[in-house]
Design a protein that fits this description.
Blueprint lengths: L2 E3 H8 L12 E3 L1 E2 L10 E2 L13 H6 L5 E5 L11 E4 L2 H15 L3 E6 L4 H12 L5 E3 L9 H7 L7 E5 L7 H9 L3 E4 L7 H4 L2 H8 L11 E5 L3 H7 L7 E5 L9 E7 L2 E6 L5 E4 L4 H16 L7 H6 L9 E4 L5 E5 L5 H12 L6 E7 L8 H10 L8 E5 L3 H12 L4 E4 L2 H9 L6 E6 L7 H8 L1
Parallel strand pairs: 3-4, 4-5, 5-6, 7-9, 7-10, 8-9, 10-11, 11-12, 17-21, 18-19, 18-21, 19-20
Antiparallel strand pairs: 1-2, 13-14, 14-15, 16-17
């Protein structure tokens, strides 16, 4: 993590006041949450609509363990006789501090974006690179204009590679993040329907994701999903200094699977490069594609394909992403309740539909958010696309998912589809239909909190 004197921090953050009387105070790390202050942290308050973090500054220093704090210029009455750095805007100061610190580090960076799979790809990339390097990665969902700077400021000076997830909700956000991170390699996992509400079309989403290239360092590597026409079309005339490599299902890509064999908790696959068989301990063919992207990034930084099984063997994904667990009756549960879009929803359903060894397959599907004016149609199509020969029951939760239930009834029939607005009622009915030979998929956007259904099944 960043370790600097207050005088150095003041210069990096753009201080407007004289801090010379506290210049030798040491700062170790940064926090924006008083509940998570560690010894000698720099506390950064924000002026919000509902609450103002500045009211916690004095207590953070005198009682909380922080050694110093920032203070936004337009907030009155900064504490006197305390190590305070006054700045024009605390958010901008955080970002400038992170930018300056990142530029001081001798480090390689992999930047990852995409509509789906970026967190899983981040986890895979970090594990593969850890075979050779000291690696840090974005923790949780710290992938926005606040999270990425905090991630950069947590990098240790001896870290050799940082794997940074870059998220967005509108145009220009990824450009801002990538120019702060200055990646040596970038990955674009895919283009889906997430953020249609903000951007309006898949074409606009593709343009926004491609902003990640603007921060690429000279002679870096651009890794993208070659099965996506929107990316192929936009990169066919690329004339920058970066190199292009594609991954995907089709043989037109630089890296693609030539054989795939399902396992109980994952997949075994071979690629077109070499004879190595890879064992991936995570379910879903879409996750094989995420693995291919990670493999290209790791190879670019010097990890040979022949060692990568060691990285996959110890793979641990961020919670609620194709997380396999067991319920109270012995049923298997796939918890994929962190995020959802039509693309990822269909991929997860396809996975369950084609699993063998289960006498009953049940889907628990919640609302997919931020899909724009066609959200009802997207939900309805998820329902109508189900295979009645491979799915036994469907449970839906949420107003939008009533359209999923409507479509599913047309395929499975009325008696096999249950629509709920009450999570407990859903869970109670669901428990009547599970046995020790059942597989249950639980998937929705994060805001639906469907992990509560998983927890109910486990009781």
């Amino acid at each position: 993590m960043i370790q600097k004197t207050l005088a150095e921090i003041a210069k990096m953050a753009g201080a407007l006041n004289d801090v010379s009387s506290f210049g030798d105070v040491m700062v170790k790390g940064v926090t924006i949450d008083t509940r998570k202050i560690e010894e000698n942290n720099l506390f950064i308050p924000f002026k919000g609509e509902r609450t103002d973090g500045h009211k916690f500054v004095e207590d953070a220093i005198t009682n909380g363990g922080a050694s110093a704090a920032l203070w936004q210029k337009d907030v009155p009455n900064p504490p006197e006789d305390l190590p305070i750095i006054i700045v024009e805007d605390t958010t901008v100061a955080l970002q400038e501090l992170a930018r300056s610190y990142r530029n001081s580090l001798d480090i390689k960076v992999v930047g990852i974006t995409g509509s789906n799979g970026k967190t899983t790809t981040k986890d895979m990339t970090a594990d593969l690179l850890a075979l050779k390097f000291k690696v840090q990665k974005t923790e949780g969902n710290f992938n926005n204009h606040l999270g990425l700077p905090l991630t950069l400021l947590r990098l240790r000076e001896d870290t050799e590679v940082a794997v940074l997830e870059m998220g967005m909700s509108s145009k220009g956000e990824i450009e801002f993040l990538t120019e702060m991170g200055r990646p040596d390699a970038v990955i674009i996992t895919n283009i889906g329907e997430s953020h249609l509400l903000d951007l309006g079309s898949r074409e606009a989403i593709a343009d926004a994701k491609l902003e990640i290239i603007s921060g690429l360092r000279e002679n870096g590597l651009i890794i993208f999903n070659g099965d996506e026409p929107l990316l192929q079309e936009r990169l066919k005339d690329y004339n920058g200094t970066g190199n292009l490599k594609t991954f995907g299902s089709s043989p037109d890509n630089d890296l693609y699977p030539v054989s795939v064999e399902p396992m109980e908790n994952g997949s075994r696959f071979k690629t077109n490069q070499g004879t190595e068989t890879f064992e991936l301990p995570v379910l879903g063919n879409h996750n094989i594609l995420n693995a291919l992207a990670a493999m290209l990034a790791a190879e670019f930084l010097g990890v040979p394909f022949g060692k990568m099984n060691e990285g996959f063997a110890g793979l641990k994904l961020t919670n609620m992403r194709m997380e396999l667990s067991e319920g109270a009756k012995g049923e298997k549960i796939i918890n994929d309740a962190y995020n959802a879009s039509p693309t990822s929803m269909n991929a997860a359903i396809d996975l369950v539909a084609n699993l063998t060894g289960y006498s009953r397959k049940i889907l628990v599907l919640g609302d997919m958010l931020e899909l724009g004016p066609l959200e009802g149609e997207y939900h309805y199509k998820v329902g109508t696309s189900l295979d009645a020969g491979k799915i036994d029951f469907v449970f839906t939760y949420g107003k939008l998912s009533e359209m999923t239930a409507k479509g599913a009834r047309e395929v499975l029939g009325e008696e096999k589809v249950f629509a709920y607005q009450d999570k407990q009622a859903l869970s109670d009915e669901l428990k009547k239909h599970v046995t020790n030979e059942t597989i249950v998929l639980v998937k929705a956007s994060r805001g639906m909190k469907l992990e509560e259904v998983v927890q109910s099944l486990q009781k």
